[in-house]
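Case study 2.
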Amino acid sequence: MRFKRSELVTNAQKISNEQQHERFWCTFTHTRVAWVFVIFCGWEVFLSWKGLDKPFSRPSLVEIPFYILVVAVYAPIFWMVLRCFTERFVIVIATVDTAITVVSWLLPTLLNPVAGLFRRTFLVLWGLAFLMSLNMPIQSGRHPYIELEKTETKTRNQRLLILGAVCAIALVLGVLLYFIPLR
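Prediction:
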């Protein structure tokens, strides 16, 4: 018995990028993905704050290919998969930040005099992205993605949201208490 190639395509392969985004990656319908974005943006705010008023660091030979791979390969893939404005805003900030870092490594005399300006700009951008990402877990708790085969109870999602919010607040307070000296 012979099958045509089109008959062998599974249902998962037939869905469009928009449907795939909504089913697996949308931060406004999936709580876990939303918390990953919040943690990532918070971590980038912290790293940007620690790097304020410092020149760009010298690269190692292992870092340069990794950063070029991130800018040239991973950013377009994430751009294709992630569709919401906030998600793409984070992708753009991360890609531009990485590209500026690579350019500063290749041409240090060009960007090192204005490194402080770049670092402050990215601190503000990452702070804005962090504030925008704080809405994601709330929205994903209110409007979770519901598959037709299985449905989760609303109370379970609310408990996970509250637990996640408590953990995030505890993490932020712990970082603040650790790095900001008490008077």
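Residues 154-179 form the longest helix (26 residues).
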